[in-house]
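Hi R.,

Here's the chain you asked about this morning:
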Amino acid sequence: MKKIFTLLLLFLTCNSLECQIAGGQNVYSLDDCIDIALENNFDIRLSETIIESAAATLTSAFGNYLPNINFNMGFSRQLNVRTINIGGVNLPLANINPNSYNMSAIAGYTIFDGFSREAAYSSARENLDATSLNSEYTVKRVMLDVFRQYISIVRNSQIVRIRREDLELGKKVLERVQALYKAGNEPVGTVYSQEADLGARELELVRAENDINIAKALLLTTMGLEPKYDVEFFEKSIPATITDNEILAFRKSIGSLRAITKSALNNRLDYNSTGSRVQAAEANVSVASSGYYPRISASGGWSWSNSEFAGFGDFGRSFLGLNLSVPLFDRFITNNNIESAKLNLEQRQVERKKLEQNIRSYVQTAYLNLDAAEKRIEITGRSLKSATRNYDSARERFQIGAINITDLIFANTQLVTAKINRITAIYSYIYSQKEILFGMGKLN
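And here is the predicted structure, written out as tokens:
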């Protein structure tokens, strides 16, 4: 029972957000990386801040429907008021209160402003919608980046493993060749050839290790963490094999290129955001046009002034007012504002059309990449089988002296290349799936 409890505790620990392994290294799953990136990524945090600003603008636009109320209160005291100069003669004054108090409360309300506030509210609302959609799109884009970088890490990890196995195999072959040379059964050139090949294998291993370290640093940066190398990632978060049935099922789920493009234009958040931007720009044209309309406003309030802080009923005054303002000539300011708003509208419409073109291009490219990835999986599967058989045959023939070391090295190089191509093909296909789902606006 104690052993079962220990195993269960170990399992739960290793599936937490940030598991600890020997040596103090952190281990992240794909879900961990996505969760951390969604919380810490700087682009996402910035987009959330922009949403808050857009929401404040909408609140301000709604405030235009409300009255503005001001309360004022003041106090002043006159100095040197005991005498008054009349005809050059200073006459004394008696019972003069030097203090002065005043108080007022005034409210104003705009009855009609040429539909400016209605258009401003509409513009602010559309801008908030656009900002929210852009923020959601940023989340999807960051998720795609995490997918791509995580896949790169898993791929490079497997390549490093292949390179290390290849290096160990090369060392064993070198030991055997050196033993045969000492026994007089192999020329010294065979030893030199294997030593050169071993150096090439070491170099490829160094390159592969450097690639994985760069990939780790890049992913950690996307996650909003400090780039470092003492971290590991669960390779099992990404499937290592793809079956023909899975390929066919995915093809069936996405449909034709026409269906994919239609889905992209319906679901892409960045494209929907541009629609809101266009509507906001149209509302801004109405805001600018309001300068040609008259304005009607009402005001009311209460004021009081006295030399003593008393007599509010006797000295207080209430008032109501109605104001009409008709623009007769504003030095072409309204016309300039309208032209600027129309230019902004044209820019937003062009941006939307340009984005539509980019989406169509992106989707078509992703579709072609998926086609190529499917073909690479089939081709690399056949190549790996042939390279494995060829190497096994070459190794047996080398052991009996039927071929030289150069032939064995060539067969081994073909096998290593076939293994790496196979790994690359599988993970390229997996990323192609994510890429086309992102293009369709269905990446979850």
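One quick note: DSSP finds eleven helices and nine strands in the chain.

Cheers,
M.
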